[in-house]
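Structure tokens please, single chain.
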Amino acid sequence: MAAAAAAAAVGGQPSSQSEPPQPELGRDKAATAAHLKAALSRPDNRAGAEELQALLERVLSAERPLARAEGGGEEAAAAGGGGGGGSGGGPGAAEEEALEWCKCLLAGGGGYEEFCAAVRAYDPAALCGLVWTANFVAYRCRTCGISPCMSLCAECFHQGDHTGHDFNMFRSQAGGACDCGDSNVMRESGFCKRHQIKSSSNIPCVPKDLLMMSEFVLPRFIFCLIQYLREGYNEPAVDVPSEKDLHKVLQSLGPQISFLEDLTKMGGAMRSVLTQVLTNQQNYKDLSSGLGENACAKKSHEKYLIALKGSGLAFPEDKLTSGMQDQAAGTSSLAVSGFAGATGTSGQVDSSDEEDQDGSQGVGKRKRVKLSSSVKDQSIMDVLKHKSFLEELLFWTIKYEFPQKMVTFLLNMLPDQDYKIAFTKTFVQHYAFIMKTLKKSHESDTMSNRIVHISVQLFSNEELARQVTEECQLLDIMVTVLLYMMESCLIKSELQDEENSLHVVVNCGEALLKNNTYWPLVSDFINILSHQSVAKKFLEDHGLLVTWMNFVSFFQGMNLNKRELNEHVEFESQTYYAAFAAELEACAQPMWGLLSHCKIRETQEYTRNVVRYCLEALQDWFDAINFVDEPAPNQVTFHLPLHRYYAMFLSKAVKCQELDLDSILPDQEMLMKLMIHPLQIQASLSEIHSNMWVRNGLQIKGQAMTYVQSHFCNSMIDPDIYLLQVCASRLDPDYFISSVFERFKVVDLLTMASQHQNTILDSEHERSMLEGALTFLVILLSLRLHLGMTDDEILRAEMVAQLCMNDRTHSSLLDLIPENPNPKSGIIPGSYSFESVLSAVADFKAPVFEPGGSMQQGMYTPKAEVWDREFDPVMVILRTVYRRDVQSAMDRYTAFLKQSGKFPGNPWPPYKKRTPLHPSYKGLMRLLHCKTLHIVLFTLLYKILMDHQNLSEHVLCMVLYLIELGLENSPEEEPDEEEPVGGQERCHDSWFPGSNLVSNMRHFINYVRVRVPETAPEVKREPPASTSSDGFASTQNSGTAQVFSLVAERRKKFQEIINRNSGEANQVVRPKTSSKWSAPGSTPQLTTAILEIKESILSLLIKLHHKLSGKQNSYYPPWLDDLEILIQPEIPKYCHGDGMTAVERILLKAALQSRLNKRIIEEICRKVTPPVPPKKTSSAEKKTLDKEERRQKARERQQKLLAEFASRQKSFMETAMDVDSPETDIAMEIVTPEQQVSEAVYDCVICGQSGPSSEERPTGLVVLLQASSVLGQCRNSTEPKKLPTTEEEQIYPWDTCAAVHDVRLSLLQRFFKDSSCLQAVSIGWEGGVYVQTCGHTLHIDCHKSYMESLRNDQVLQGFSVEKGEFTCPLCRQFANSVLPCYPGNNVENSLWQCHSNKSMQELIKEVEELQEQLGIFPSETNLSKEMESVMKDIKSTTQKKYTDYSKTPGSPDNDFLFMYSVARTNLELELIHRGGNLCSGGASTAGKRSCLNQLFHVLAMHMRLYSIDSAYNPWKKLTQLMQDMNSQLYNEEQPEVPVLYRDVSSLLLIQILTMPQPLHKEHFTCIVKVLFTLLYTQALAALSVKCSEEDRLAWKDLGTLKKNTCNAEKSWEVLLSLVISELSKGKLYLEGETEELGMVAWSPDNIERYLQQFCLPFLRITSLLQHHLFGGDLPSCQEEEEFTVLASCLGLLPSFSQTVHPFTSASCLDWPVPAFDIIPQWCFEVTSFSERHAEQVKVLLIQESKWDLPRLLQLPENYNTIFQYYHRKTCSVCTKVPKDPAVCLVCGTFVCLKGLCCKQQSYCECVLHSQNCGAGTGIFLLINASVIIIIRGHRFCLWGSVYLDAHGEEDRDLRRGKPLYICKERYKVLEQQWVSHTFDHINKRWGPHYNGL
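Here you go.
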């Protein structure tokens, strides 16, 4: 039978009779399997094995036709499907059949599920090994991790104990696997509970027969899979892989791979069987060699060979035949670049195994480097031989570009140790092939992620990495593969000598670099270098180092920038980012990795190796670009990785390995070459900031910023500056200084003459370039990052610099402090040193709120002592990306000094003493003691004193800084006395005698010969008759200092150095002189003039002091008064002050260092200096100076004005924006009625006129109308609802105010007449319209023209003018309508106030008559038109479903109900804003800016149009006795709503709004009194229902006794008994006992309290209404007495005379008709209703009166609680896990943000929900981002987060993944804004959401 089935599965379609029915086949499979298992268990199992083989051959080859079916027609598919045992004809059928067979066979006849369980029992694995793909949420704990790549799945993380650890949650980018249980990657203390215990000892041995079948079946199964892969692959035609086809093949293979994956999940026992199968070479040989007689197998083997060949790979035996052509193809990529042919050799020779490596190097060819091992790189690159299933499986995985399922399967196997090793070796073996496939791939991003997903699991394990390095030459392979990869995109370098350069660099525009395709390989390399054992192998291997330096040199000089001099570049290339990323990732990070292993003396050898090969590579590079001594002008590259390798290893050698610096430094000539390019970068930075490169576009600025940016600086600018420091400390100082000024192009500026000609710089750039040069020197001389600072000092300095620029959040500080890029380096972000330094230098400012509502994060700000002692401008300048940050730091410093009273004026950057230099670098200080620098300083001081142009305070500041540095670091010996004879000849140019600054400072220079243009003023003067000889100048000739040329000086020195180096033997011939610098033809004639100077540095300083102070002889040597100063000088390490303080400090130091100086200073001061000679500046210059000064003054004035304006604006905003501070007062206030009797006067904020509002030209209030469901969210319990975070907690919205009111209305509508129901309640609990105003008024016609202008304004606004939205022209508050003000607002005020003596009966009659008057439709005035239009606005504000409650749509009753409900909504909301009661009294801001008065007029005018039929007027029922009750009740099919069921507050509004306005106060009071009697009766009725039966009887009797006392109508006992006896006539109380309420013992006190609570809501609403209609403040009171106070305020309480006996609420009653008559009438309605519907009677009587204030849901303390529950939760609508889940904070609904899955009629789910839940306002918490988003109508905004981390920061998008905690203050603010409807005003950044959220 089974055979038949199998045969059917193989061959075509047998006749239908032979096709067995399905169930039998199932049984059969089991039977066959059991039979085979038995056969195989026998000792002689050959027969069984053969039988099984035959069966498998048949079953599994059932899949074969499918592969062809993909391409070849239907019949094959039919053939495959039809034989599938009748299980349906689709292509999937046969495969499923095959899988079923496999499962059956594996289980050996048993059930597959039981088999799985059995295997699982033998799982010895102590590793988790869970594999995940991208976007999975995982954890990383740095405290527990050994490898930086360690990660844990959420389950293992939460099961382990990581309290207090440095961990974070992250979203996996590329996928990963859980390391729990792997002690190679993490410390055991971090293992979770599941993976701590399992050790292999207690796991029983696996019984042999359990897995026996697996061992037989699986090899065939896997081979079948491989055949399938072979078949499905077609070599793509011309480099366009048919990705669709590959995808198809993979899809149809899905079930098979999933099956394998399930097997791996069965645990260790099954994994070891799989490992055995995958790695067994014999199996592979037998099955796949293709030598068998099976035609199919042969064909598949051929396909496999073709695929190998097509990949440029070959079997070693085919090497001789195919290798040559293949190789030729392989290297032709160089030929394409166009310079390979130049060698004259063909590609073939180069790539043959006989590589010529004797250094003869053709143009543009990199010589391929010989590897250290015997393996030629050919074999690494081009040979693959597969010996096992695993190897071929990986080959196909790569071929198919790493399908996710295959990757997961291969990774799932990793917990098996043997597999791990075999797989790692296989992976390494295929490394070159991976690189080739990656380069060709179109999906390189996805593929990169998958590669890293695998490799990070393999290479993070040090033991494994070491083993593979030793056994498989991992390092050789990686370096070679990287080299080959980069060789495909090389271009000729244009640096220096464009024509003859032999250097090649990578082309940053190529996809390989632009898309970071190299990233996976580099990342693997960095990963393995982090292991010490592997890195040591690398550093010991000279061949590898040579290859690596070769690789690095491809990046040396890439992305060359050439300065555009004429046109702006057409196209700004953005390749620079690729270049920076490439240098950082491919060069710098491996370098840091290597450096981290060179920390101790024992590793000196490694450093020597690197330095040696680095220098060789540099020498090659200089040769290749033909470099002699001058860089080519106008070009710069920021990429010098070789220089940086060299610098960093030097630094390490000195700092950690105690190597002698000189032993690893090259000769002087090489040093001179080394310094040129880094110096060129520094000069270019200055040029870029001086706007000399503007024509190159913005990207060049981008490069300058990236170069110093925090992630790059310690791999770029820091090593560059360090290298320059090293060069400066070893080269001739004069040479160095002159090179600097020459590179910065300011040589020509350094002349004594007042005019000069700069041939290479425009004058507008001179000043900033000079500042740049001096600043660079200051940085060079004061930076100690690599010259002696410890790591902690560095960290502290970096932190101080960042904090001084701006206050910073913790995370931005972590980000801004350059950390060693290699994660293993030890400075881990968040490490203890970081925290301890932070707490030492900064104070934490907790997050606060500003009145404007902007959210602040927790910030760190520098402590006072940091400003006082540690602020270091040099460090700040070095680290600023934007120049404005330097200014910001100085401003903050100034502010601190002012505030602390240390210095009032404008301070200069402070001078700070530096860390001592490491002895190796002492030579650096010689720069300060060289004549060249002194001449420059002298010249600059002179020029500043004489006010030459293009100098600034900054220049002076830097000059003084350099002088002070020189004095601090002067050579020890005191050169006072020694003046040897040789001194004379030393003074050959008569500038300065020696090189010591201390002595040169006092040297007077009398005359200077200068070269000036003939036009200069100096030429006119007569030279002095004879050169006067002062006491200083000894001989005549030395009196005149020579023309000093920096350039000539540098040339001379250069020549000296070269000669010294090379003997005269091979004298370097300097190429063309630097004539290329001067622009030909432009230079005017220069002549030589002699200037009389007669100054020394000291005298210039003293004169400068006078100039700065603006007073003559302001400087007086301090030591003349107090000699102590010289003996014990207290010069602080850190000095605040301005230029004058600096000069004083310098003079004091100079005097301290030499007695001569002291004497000379005194002399100069004695000669009371004549005033500085009148400036010989041309009038033009004078003008520019004046202009500068004037500009400065104007600027200061402007600042002052702006500051004043800002403060004014701020105070205004605070008053205008503050929602709940009662005391703020608004300037433009609506005049509250009681203040004046005259007409109200309004100011129009548009035209500025004031006047009353009239019928013709009405004025209106700026209002915002919005639909609101806030009221509906009130609940009747004070316990706030929690956001559900488990399946058990759910929120049911039955107890909300909206729900209760809804139920009540629909109940009434079931039993009573519709029109009467619609007047018995209020709506608007959901979707009510709330009206608010900013209090400003405008003419309505002005408003119309304002809207018109907004419509024509093209500026993008945050609001939609079409919808009538605008911002108030005065305070910019958001608004969308104008509410007209009723004219003559307070005319009759006086009449209202006087108390008339009319009786209650008269008033009742008047009220009735007033109501009878029909509302006359007002005449068509502008005012009435506006009132109509605003009414339309109000209606259209909310959705139709919130206005239509009538059973007959469009009935007028609807409008009537809607209108008085608007009033109700606004009153109720105001009550809530006041905290739910009126105890605070006062007019409160809510009241002050309220527009209720105006709103009432508009509503009343419209409600008067609906007349209430007098028969149904509730007023009559309240104030008159009806005659024939019975007839009235039964003459209609649906009765009216009984009065006792009506909502009294609604009745009040109906009464008042249907009376003619303005209303008299006495009528108002009358209405209130009447309604109070009804309310009181309702309270008694509700109470009677709540009592138990015996309570009722007791009260009934008690009341009957008191009935005849004098005040019976005002005693609640009497009334209660009346109500009870009347209601008992019906079937009301018969309905079973009211169980839950019978428990309360109703004492008289309790009853009194209940009655008051029942009446209070009505009293509050009424009092508010009275306050708005008639003015008058609300009294404030205690909570206990609120009832009494409000009752007397409303005139219900006669007077407080009878205070003797306790107050009862009943004393407020004033019955219009005797109570004993009217109450029975009201009760009758109810009892007659109870006849028919007894069960509903009670429900309707008990009205819920006590609502708590509306609250948002309560959130858990820790954000993780929310995240873990919701981020994997499925949506109830679409049952998928949403990509962007969100949860509503009002009702807890879970929604898909932006999810198309839940879209309805073009509305996405969030928008839809915001309409249903909040009538257009939605507050959602985005689960994956932790932020809150607000939807308001058609706009939305990001509100911010209410969860902050331990440092008070938000973590938007959970990027940092630190634990977050609720910030209760923020949540309160959110709730406050929700309740007060101020989202629109407080949040500023709104945008339209187009219904897409």
